[in-house]
Amino acid sequence: MNDRAASDILLSVTDLKVHFPRAKPGWFGQPELVKAVDGVSFELRRGSTLAIVGESGSGKTSTALAVMRLSPLTAGRIQLGDTELGALQGEALRQARRRLQIIFQDPFSSLNPRERAGAAVRAPLDLMQVGSPAQRSARVAELFTAVGLRPEQQQLFPHQFSGGQRQRINIARALATNPELVVCDEPVSALDIAIRAQILNLLVRLQRELGLSYLFISHDMAVVEHICDDIAVMYLGQIVERGPRKAFFANPLHPYSVALMSAVPTVHGGRARAAQRIKLSGDPPSPINPPPGCRFAGRCPVAEPACAAELPPLRELAPDHWVRCRRVELVDGVPRAPLQLPTA
Amino acid sequence: MADALLQVQDLRVEFVTRRGQALVLNGVDFELRRGETLCVVGESGCGKSMTALALLRLIPAPPGRISSGRVLFQGEDLVAASMARMREVRGNRISMIFQEPMTSLNPVLTVGEQISESLRLHAGLDAGAARARAVEMLQQVGIPAPQRRVDDYPHQLSGGMRQRVMIAMALACRPDILIADEPTTALDVTVQAQIFDLLRELQRDKGTAILLITHDMGAVAEMADRVMVMYAGRVVEQGSTAQVLGTPGHPYTQGLINCLPELGSSAHAATNSERVTLAEISGVVPSIWELGSGCAFHQRCAQALPRCAEQVPPLFALDGSGHGAACWLLGQAEVAA
Fold first, then answer.
1. What integer pLDDT is reported at residue B334 of this predicted model?
2. Half-sphere exposure of A32 (CA within 13 A, CB side)
3. How far is CA A72 from CA A22, A38, A76, A87, in A?
4. For residue B266, what is the nearest residue in chain A, using CA coordinates?
5. Taking 50 as the threshold, does the pLDDT of residue A3 lie above it?
6. Which of A190, B165, B234, B304 reaches 20 to 30 Å from B296, CA-CA?
7. Chain B nearest-CA residue for A199
8. In Å, how far is A56's CA from the nearest CA of chain B?
9. Nearest to A222 among B262, B269, B279 (CB)
10. Nearest to residue B79, comparing CAs of B180, B8, B159, B151?
11. What would the 3-class secondary structure string for B175-236 be?
12. Partners of A274 in the β-ladder
């Protein structure tokens, strides 16, 4: 992202590490370290969406929580505009929180069942003392309308709303303080399929109208392809590939990205697609003692002995398209993936 | 039909609550043939899991009960069967796997003990033979080092391995029918692909009929021979996979297919950040208390006719054999033609 002006970048994360100590069983064992996020760097342009995809245990949610300063940072820099978020403490951090908000996956557990919907949306305004009390009431009504709820529904309790409506309340609450960055942690995964489109369309419309920037965490490649501008694929605590949406989906380079895309069942692909699928065996290795070389080498269909020996660096092989795989080659200036996506 | 293994006729399940009676299944008709996969699709609350539970007579009663209808399994009506007979059927002739493998395995028994249980009960094997068969089943579902894994407890296994154990348990007695209720929803996509492969392979080898409950249209396209779409306790469309996904007759089915982005959407975008507005199905599923008269979908349907609010549409036959949809728009066409 060399050619872009620095002011264009809202969020810049450099070499982020989140390690959790875990007591080892037994009396004399050394405590172990779970390396949930192990050296992640990315940038999010203002007004755009960066999606982080990966499977369970890849560290995508730990990354999101670290950016939100909701989990302890082990190392790394998190720069929001001109502010170094990672260094903020106490009241300064609390004040900075109005600039970053989060929408959680589960619309049922992320709302207090005993708090009325209006009060939930109003809470951030009261905590941050935004405007006068009368202005706050007007703002809550405005937010309800913006997310497609009726202002009179403020009086209702969460159980009186459907899952999709609850997610709208969560979105309204996240938008209350006019944040610059909204972290969306699997915002549609817990919703019924027919409701997902409503929420995805709402997120796109709000981004366009309010100039929001989204860090969008998901495991669903099809949703990510629809909503993102840039994508980063994580595997076992590291980014294995990062690039612009069109370039990535037209030519995924890392074997894990290719396998992940091939695993998604599609309506048009049907059984032909299933028959040609790239099969990954086994489960990801443990993040406690990750293998020394490429972390995917043990499951990679095209791994060579050298892959397991040394961790490959992230290389920029096309404009803004980075990949952590030593087997990706440049042929006539165009990167070529070692594993091709089946055509069906 | 000669090859129908299971015939469900006019199945109704009601729940009696303080608010009155609620019909959660309202006249469900379908059949499952030997060796095929039938997918049941729909949103939460449409009755797809209730259908599965009703087949095995596992509806929590009270408050629920099967109020009418027949479930003919090889000609025998399971609705009228005794509890002793049902115990012979469950886990033996018809078995089931659930969405969340962790909560459906017993945490204090080894996986070997859990697989052995049905073998000892139904096949009359002794402990040693059952254990040997459990190891064999673990091998078949692709668990590495089955001799060692047979003594593991569920918490020692990953999510995908637990679901494999569930499948091993369900298939141990070589059932005629396997009911799989969202078996991969809690799993990662790469693991889902492994489980789908396994189910297809086991079906090919053993000829088990699979009733697969899912909400993922991609999974339907990959797994199903035939599809049944449910809405508010009724079957609104059924037919072969090609018919239902290729030329869906019901507006709800069309909505389900079109409302989610498919892989490949960025290839059609002119610029990196151009995206289409997704087709939405407006509103939400009505609660069972608010169904009123007529088609349950009419309030969310863009093409609803006056008649839709008044009368429940029957299943109209569509292209070819076995494809039908319950929508007055199709009845309209029939009258006009």
1. 55
2. 14
3. 14, 13, 11, 12
4. A246
5. no
6. A190
7. B280
8. 7
9. B262
10. B8
11. CCEEEEECCCCCCCHHHHHHHHHHHHHHHHHHCCEEEEEECCHHHHHHHCCEEEEEECCEEE
12. none
Alpha carbon distance B284, A194 (integer Å):
8
Give me the residue label for tokens 């403020």: A154
pLDDT at B281: 87
Instruction: Extract the tokens encoding A66.
Output: 């670290």
> How far A344 CA lies from chain B's nearest CA (Å)?
12
- Other CB atoms within 10 Å distance of the CB of residue B213: 24
Residue B269: exposure state from Cβ atoms within 10 A (0-12, 13-18, ≥19)? middle
Question: Which member of B44, B215, B261 has the closest CB to residue A226?
Answer: B261
Please tell me the distance from the alpha carbon of residue B177 to that of residue B192, in angstroms, as a whole number.
21
Residues in chain B: 337
What distances in angstroms separate CA A316 from CA A66, A242, A243, A333, B205, one per listed residue? Answer: 25, 9, 9, 12, 47
pLDDT at A6: 52
What is the reported pTM?
A: 0.90
Q: Which of A309, A268, A266, A108 is nearest to A189 (CA)?
A: A108
Select from B245, B255, B265 the Cβ nearest to the Cβ of A225: B265
Task: Phi first, then psi: give them for residue A284, nearest 5 degrees.
Answer: -60, 145
Q: What is the mean pLDDT of residues B136-146?
A: 87
> How far apart are the C-alpha atoms of A131 and A45, rounded to whole Å?
29
Secondary structure E strands in B52-93: 64-73, 76-77
Give the C-alpha distances (Å, rounded to integers) separating A320 from A63, A332, B206, B266: 21, 18, 50, 17
In terms of Cβ atoms closer than 10 Å to its own Cβ (0-12, 13-18, 19+), residue B161 is buried
Distance CA B134, CA A137 (A): 63
Region B301-322: mean pLDDT is: 88
The 10s digit of each residue's pLDDT in B79-98 is: 999 999 999 999 899 999 98
